[in-house]
Amino acid sequence: MHLHNTHAPTSEVPVVAGPCPALAVHDLSAGYPGARGAIQSVSFSVWRGERVGLVGPNGAGKSTLFKALVGLIPHDTGHVSIHGEDCSTSHRMIGYVPQQEEIDWGFPVTVRDVVMMGRARRIGWLRWPRRRDWEAVDAMLESVGLAALSHRQIGQLSGGQRRRVFIARALAQATDVLLLDEPFSGVDAAAEEEIMETLDLLRARGVSVVLATHDLGMAVNEFDRLLLLNRQVVAYGAPAAVFNADTLKRAYGGRLGVIEEGQRTLVIVDEHGCPEGAPMHTEGD
Question: Which of 173, 191, 247, 275 is most exposed, with the fewest beta carbons within 10 Å of its own?
């Protein structure tokens, strides 16, 4: 059993508004019907520079949602737009950092090579990177504090450094919408802090971030809005509005106990009640 002491953020970080959301998702359904992780009729929007936390129990469909948005799996219904424009090929317009177990860390490539992979569609297939492409890669590595490690093999990095390399790769696509699937899983407190500092830099550049996490305490403190998902959208809005006894019990059921004390909420997670016995705070859906 884990205790998460959650409360409203002490200060609001301004979000840069524009004429249209940076990312708008309407009535999106994806995954095999009835399968674990399938999502139904998901709708939400994210504004420029906004940081949205994606939370929900194991099997809620968080990874399915991300993969549908970037074109790794087809969606059955729904519409996705970027800055108001139709995004039938959204995988070209959204940066995506997958969960770490999906990456082959033994592959013989350097940090710089990995980030260059994010430039592939801009360079064109069967073409060599040009000087301006390498300059863009070096700028991305500098922005995430990894310029000194650019020639190191990717598997030689620490957990936090690996996450930042893949954030740099996603940014090398020249996108301003970034999806991060459990970037804090398996890293220590120092690495968490480094990743959060990188997210702060992205906000300053106007990059919109949707980040999946099982850490409810972090979610309520570090994000402008929360998307509470359990195959469908249970709630979406400011953390104080999303984290209440009703919405949390609807998402987590009997696996969650909620005690409200004024403006503070104590969330008690029963790991033994999670599907298939999996701890709720671990990686994956």
Answer: 275
Provide block-wise average pLDDT over 10 residues at a time, the chain (285 residues): 38 54 94 80 95 93 92 86 73 78 79 86 72 88 90 89 87 86 86 87 90 88 94 94 86 66 57 39 39
Q: Where are the beta strands (DSSP E) in 159-238?
A: 177-181, 208-212, 225-230, 232-237
Tally of CA atoms within 13 A in the half-sphere of 62 that contains its CB = 29
Pair 24, 57 in one domain: yes
166 & 194 share domain: no
CA pair distance 199, 144, nearest whole angstrom? 9
Distance CA 246, CA 196 (A): 29
